[in-house]
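Lab notebook, bench 4. Continuing the backlog of folding jobs that were queued last week. Each job is logged with the same field layout so the records can be merged later without manual cleanup. Today's entry covers Phosphoenolpyruvate-protein phosphotransferase, a 325-residue chain. Filled in by technician R.K.

JOB TYPE: sequence-to-structure
TARGET: Phosphoenolpyruvate-protein phosphotransferase
LENGTH: 325
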Amino acid sequence: EAAEWAKLKDAASITADGKHFDIAANIGTPKDLDGVTANGAEAIGLYRTEFLYMDSAELPSEDDQFEAYKEVLEGMQGKPVVVRTMDIGGDKHLPYLPLPEEMNPFLGYRAIRISLDRQDIFRTQLRALLRASAFGKLRIMFPMIATVQEFRQAKAVLDEEKAQLQAQGVALGDDLQVGIMIEIPAAAVLADQLAKEVDFFSIGTNDLIQYTMAADRGNEHVSYLYQPYNPSILRLIKHVIDSAHQSGKWVGMCGEAAGDSTMVPLLLGMGLDEYSMSATSILRVRSLMKHLDTTELQDLVQQALNVSISNDDNLKLVADFVAKN
Ligand code: PEP
Ligand code: MG
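JOB STATUS: finished
OUTPUT FIELD FOLLOWS
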């Protein structure tokens, strides 16, 4: 198997019926680029910038951030790079940025909520990103968006910084896209409205499952409720994909489910455009795609959404389907 996978390193990601999808990599630092190149990623679908903040003794400067973003964009040689703005809070803390004690940190002050409140930190990051946009194909992504208003506010701050840099004559990329993570159920339900305003979505199943099932993703006592294939989760994902496409936007996934062999056939059947995963999963998923025919997957999706009543039903449904192919 490993030998067959290795041959796919420089191949495009194509299904048995000839449809092309993008397989992308999740990274945490520019050091991860080696693995991305070695495994033939077609893009970076999630650059988690919080490690830049966590690996530092103080807030990283605009120039330090600029250098990191530029290195990743240049390293990808014109392939798309989705950079997520700071997702601190929840379980991720910064020694130099005291956060309030909270009863429910995962429902509290985190990610875009901090960025909109601490605009000094947010604007520094956005300026670094905008300056780096001249060196590749940058897509900026906001995490933990719950409402249309939050997106509009974040986008307005970005537009202000962009206008200022342009007035100063700073060179910027000309095909910047701005999108959001869909990882809060409210955003998934209103995906049709959000899709009119953004350039793209990326579905964060790690959090979307936790919030939809009301089950802490790290708590072993409720891990039986962490159900990626539950029809409720699949229906939300389908709605997000359909909503993006109705507005002519692309939609990816950067949660663990995007590289999961049981989930991939369902996602292909729903038409998800981009699959972002740890670099070590890329060749396995590219090989799996090669053996799947999307026309046959439509029926599988219908069953998973409408006939099945449980996570385990769907696990078996896909396993049986794959075994026959
Ligand atoms: C997610 O929630 O699915 C995601 C990709 O973000 P993180 O795992 O960093 O919360
Ligand atoms: Mg998340």
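OBSERVATION: The chain has a mean pLDDT of 97.
SIGNED: R.K.
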